[in-house]
Design goal:
This protein is α/β, with parallel strands linked by helices. The chain is 39% helix and 22% strand. It contains ten helices and twelve strands. The strands form three sheets. Strands 3-2-1-4-7 form a five-stranded mixed β-sheet, sandwiched between helices. The protein has a five-stranded mixed β-sheet with strand order 10-9-8-11-12, sandwiched between helices. The structure holds zinc ion (ZN).
């Protein structure tokens, strides 16, 4: 039986049987909102649907203790206001003879890129996942760097505006996520629209969530407000990632996540320029787009068993 990767997200659960980094069969459902038990049940059903498993790797949003499979905190999952032993619960639901490993969702996505995607040739890699929020993962010396509590590489909450910065979803000010996360961009766009700014973003999204594709479309149309917001996002990412490079000396940065993927290579190229302009002359740090795209989560989760 196969190795199965699980991408547990705030809105959907994607499960896939993975062989040598390739998705063979996959299935997904909207993430149940009935708390941990309902999520465990959904994962077990999806694993059976893709043919069962000998090993199951799970990428979960939030803080994860990878040695025990315990999700310590997951603010994006409804009803997860306590520690959840996700690994042991999924193993039990699958009959007890299945080995289950759990890690942070962006950690596993970056691991996937390292083993099977854009970062195959590099031993020292920083991944920046630009989605609703901004997550990160770090590979040092060919291995995932998790840090003391599993939160190493979480670059979204690095401060890039030291005073008077925009408010971040976490309650602090001036963080990268406040300038580059899709959720923050939407909040800022709606705030400015209410103040009278004209923007295609509100026209395209209406009252619905302002999806990543909406930002990509508005940017293509030459919408001025979108241009300004993305300019600010590029500056924030450039400053934060350059600081990170100075700290940990990686040679490669991979940009993924919903918004990163939708804005594509043009955006990634601008971030590369912004990073290099803040490093010493002659820096050879490369910034590249994710290769695995939507599959990074499941391929990476399975890669916990590579
Ligand atoms: Zn923050």
């Amino acid at each position: 039986m196969a190795t199965v990767g699980v991408d547990l997200g705030g809105t959907k659960i994607l499960v896939a049987s993975v062989h040598h980094g390739k998705v063979e069969d996959s299935a997904k459902v909207p993430t149940p909102t009935g708390g941990p038990e309902s999520v465990v049940e959904a994962i077990a059903e999806l694993v059976e649907k893709v043919g069962g498993a000998k090993e199951v790797g799970i990428g979960a949003p939030g803080q994860v203790h990878h040695k025990t499979g315990v999700v310590v905190a997951a603010p994006n999952l409804v009803g997860w206001g306590r520690e959840v032993p996700l690994g042991p619960l999924v193993a039990e639901a699958l009959g007890g003879s299945v080995e289950v490993r759990v890690d942070n969702d962006v950690n596993v996505a970056v691991l996937g890129e390292h083993h099977h995607g854009a970062a195959k040739e590099a031993d020292d890699v920083l991944g920046a996942w630009v989605g609703t929020g901004v997550g990160g993962g770090l590979i040092l010396g060919g291995k995932l760097g998790r840090g003391r509590t599993g939160m190493a590489g979480e670059l979204g909450h690095m401060t890039v505006v030291a005073a008077g910065g925009r408010r971040c979803g976490c309650g602090q000010f001036g963080h990268i996520e406040a300038y580059a996360g899709r959720g923050s961009l939407e909040a800022e766009a709606r705030r400015r629209a209410e103040e009278g700014a004209q923007t295609a973003l509100v026209e395209l999204a209406g009252d619905e969530r302002m999806k990543s594709s909406v930002f990509a479309k508005a940017l293509d149309r030459g919408d001025q407000l979108t241009g300004e917001l993305i300019d600010d996002a590029v500056v924030a990412l450039g400053a934060g990632l350059a600081s990170a490079v100075n700290l940990v000396d990686v040679g490669l940065i991979v940009i993924g996540g919903g918004l990163g993927d939708k804005l594509g290579p043009a955006f990634v190229g601008r971030v590369e320029e912004a990073v290099r302009s803040r490093l010493w002359a002659g820096s050879t740090v490369r910034v590249v787009p994710s290769e695995l795209g939507d599959d990074a989560g499941v391929v990476g989760a399975a890669a916990l068993f590579d």
